[in-house]
Amino acid sequence: MIRSEFLSKIPFSIVHKRWGLGELEIIVDNELKKAVCYRHQNRTSSFGTYGKSWLEIYDDLYNHLSVNGYLK
Description:
Elements (H helix, E strand, L loop, with lengths): L2 H7 L3 E4 L3 E10 L4 E7 L4 E7 L2 H14 L5
Antiparallel strand pairs: 1-2, 2-3, 3-4
């Protein structure tokens, strides 16, 4: 999976039950590590995950979002 595929399959924003609107933020994107989270207006973050590939990040983040009811 490449970055653009990852971005097309994961929601850009969520409304967190506690912290409100959060937008997807890519923290690290290099050949050895990828990292993402949802950044909220109060600068907190949620569902942060790290991995070596976009597929690894997708699998982990998708699971977190699904279990917590953020995917339809």
